[in-house]
Amino acid sequence: MLTPQEWEELLHEKDEKLKDALRELADVRTALDQSTIVAMTDHRGIILRANDQFCHISKYPRHELIGQDHRLLNSGYHPKTFFKQMWACIGSGRIWRGEIRNRAKDGSYYWVDTTIVPFRNQEGKIYQYVSIRSDITARKQMEEEVRQSEEKYRIIAENTSDIISMIDRSGEFLYLSPAHKSVWAHDVPDEEIRNMLDWIADEDRDNFLYAIEHTFSTRKEYLVECRLKTKRDKPIWTETKLNPIIDEHDNVTCLIQVTRDTTERKQSEELIHYLAYHDALTELPNRRMYVQHLGKEIMQAKRFQSNMAVLFLDLDRFKDVNDSFGHDVGDLLLKEAATRLKASVKPGDMVARLGGDEFTVLISNLTEREEAAAVAEQIMQVMQEPFYMNGQAFNISSSIGISLFPDDGDNAEDLLKRADTALYTVKSRGRNGFDFFDPSMEAKSLERILMENELRKAIEQEHFQIYYQPKMDIKTGTLTGMEALVRWMHPELGIIPPNRFIPIAEESGMIIPLGEWILKEACKQNKRWHDQGYELKVSVNLSVRQIYQKDLLDMIKATLEETQLEPKWLELEITESIFVKMDEATIVLQQIRDIGIQISIDDFGTGYSSFSYIKSLPVDTIKIDASFIRDVHHNQESQAIVKAIVTIAESLNMKVVAEGIELNDQVAALQENGCGQGQGYLFSRPLATADFEQFLRKEQLGI
């Protein structure tokens, strides 16, 4: 039996243990209150206690929570069955865990990860619940953002016209978007579509395999063109961009592919490629194709020590026919002349149209000089026979200049130039004849010398004026800009048109100071119009010689700074001849474009145009040459050409302007084929500054 002192010691020991336990409980409570949302309710769910964290997240003061149940926080997000199941669980004495979205007092929503623990009394009845919650709002928001992002990309993948897919290194599909059914035009069940390579045309399969291996090994995106098999008569052309997917271990696990049907664009490319090498009117090879072919033939002739002849000819008095009877009759005559020319040469010799009424013939494997003379005589004979157009007979003749390889030159440029020189000599003697090149012909004519001297004086004394031709929105009839065109105001000869002096200026180098003057005057005048409230873009022609001018960029910047014209209100027009030095031109044009100036290609379709070149150039606008517009209202071929150019321009985000519009029927045909802007005499001829100002005022008044 314990003594009183032993009892006292025992009680003291127990009291200390109890105090320690209470201190531990107090510490746990403090830790929970600081880090966790804690609430205590009775068996009916009435809140008996709420800690500070509960009050903070719910934004309710404690006295507004005590005595309420959790319906006060109901967000309406969960269905009634959710809470019914929860009460069934805790009512049976089991612990319930789940995630709940609640609504705070200010109407905002928050998520909590919840654990509810039921407590029983001595009779085994539940008398209270303790809920312990953690704020998971940030995590749920992140999950929702991820879900929305995944949903967005799923919608994009399933509704885009491009095929989006995922493949492994062997080409096996890991994912394939629904667009494949419409693009490939098939009804094969998805489970039977296993490998990308099965759908690639046999001749392109190695190319695609290389693309896969290249992307896996270099870990960089790759663009590949190939044909895909379909249930159509022909495979479709596609462009596929492959991107590597890299895992956390820095390994390429698979590839994402975006495949686009480019068949229509490919067809447009082929048409443009044809246009690049053929004359649209006569379907003869054009200058570009002729020069390339001539270059190859020269290499062959050097190798086998053979001879060739270049015949340069034009049609005498063709301009009179054009001016008197119109371009339609002139075009018919040119087509018939092309037919007669082809019939006058032997198979293997090339006939080409260089432009206007100028043609050239290449005679390969020439045995003697007289053979070229015989061909020239044959051509002259067939050209002298009457041309019957629209029930009327036209009598014309031809003048021909001939250069010989290797006597007169060992490259295409020299042979063409010297054949042209011989042609000029024939025409100066009265036309209707032919002659072989002679070195004495290269001496400049007196007229040329005088013209060059007069032009030099005119540049020094600024005997020039700028005329402006409006560019219009052909749908609305509103003014969209203007092209600056130079005119030589000779004190004795009057107005001299550009076609008479610009070639001399380019050949002599005087185009550099003249071009600078034109640019400065056009920018200065446009700034004046801007200050008057007419915000329009002025287009200024830039010659090939100017493009390769060393200080061109500095000159343009200085001009804009001096005239205070913003770069966005200036457009520079170039011709297709820049494609000869493609790489150099691209660098210069990109530098100009970086300033904010726009670039357009003038007379598109007449020379060197190629879709591959257009894609590579920093260009904003394509101007369709007037030769395609002249008969666009009744010629299906011209309409197809315009449509193809517009299609390509749209795919490259370029604008299209039609030149030489003279008829309302042409406007209707252009609109039907997607062309929205144009210029030509239908709207206005080029106008002097004062006359253009009147045009601007009328436009402003809607007259």
Automatic annotation (TrEMBL):
<dbReference type="InterPro" id="IPR035965">
    <property type="entry name" value="PAS-like_dom_sf"/>
</dbReference>
<feature type="coiled-coil region">
    <location>
        <begin position="132"/>
        <end position="159"/>
    </location>
</feature>
<dbReference type="InterPro" id="IPR001610">
    <property type="entry name" value="PAC"/>
</dbReference>
<dbReference type="InterPro" id="IPR043128">
    <property type="entry name" value="Rev_trsase/Diguanyl_cyclase"/>
</dbReference>
<keyword id="KW-0175">Coiled coil</keyword>
<feature type="domain" description="PAC">
    <location>
        <begin position="96"/>
        <end position="148"/>
    </location>
</feature>
<dbReference type="InterPro" id="IPR000160">
    <property type="entry name" value="GGDEF_dom"/>
</dbReference>
<dbReference type="Pfam" id="PF00990">
    <property type="entry name" value="GGDEF"/>
</dbReference>
<dbReference type="InterPro" id="IPR052155">
    <property type="entry name" value="Biofilm_reg_signaling"/>
</dbReference>
<dbReference type="InterPro" id="IPR029787">
    <property type="entry name" value="Nucleotide_cyclase"/>
</dbReference>
<dbReference type="Pfam" id="PF13426">
    <property type="entry name" value="PAS_9"/>
</dbReference>
<dbReference type="Pfam" id="PF00563">
    <property type="entry name" value="EAL"/>
</dbReference>
<dbReference type="InterPro" id="IPR035919">
    <property type="entry name" value="EAL_sf"/>
</dbReference>
<feature type="domain" description="EAL">
    <location>
        <begin position="448"/>
        <end position="700"/>
    </location>
</feature>
<feature type="domain" description="GGDEF">
    <location>
        <begin position="306"/>
        <end position="439"/>
    </location>
</feature>
<protein>
    <recommendedName>
        <fullName>Diguanylate cyclase</fullName>
    </recommendedName>
</protein>
<feature type="domain" description="PAC">
    <location>
        <begin position="222"/>
        <end position="274"/>
    </location>
</feature>
<dbReference type="InterPro" id="IPR000700">
    <property type="entry name" value="PAS-assoc_C"/>
</dbReference>
<dbReference type="InterPro" id="IPR001633">
    <property type="entry name" value="EAL_dom"/>
</dbReference>
<dbReference type="InterPro" id="IPR000014">
    <property type="entry name" value="PAS"/>
</dbReference>
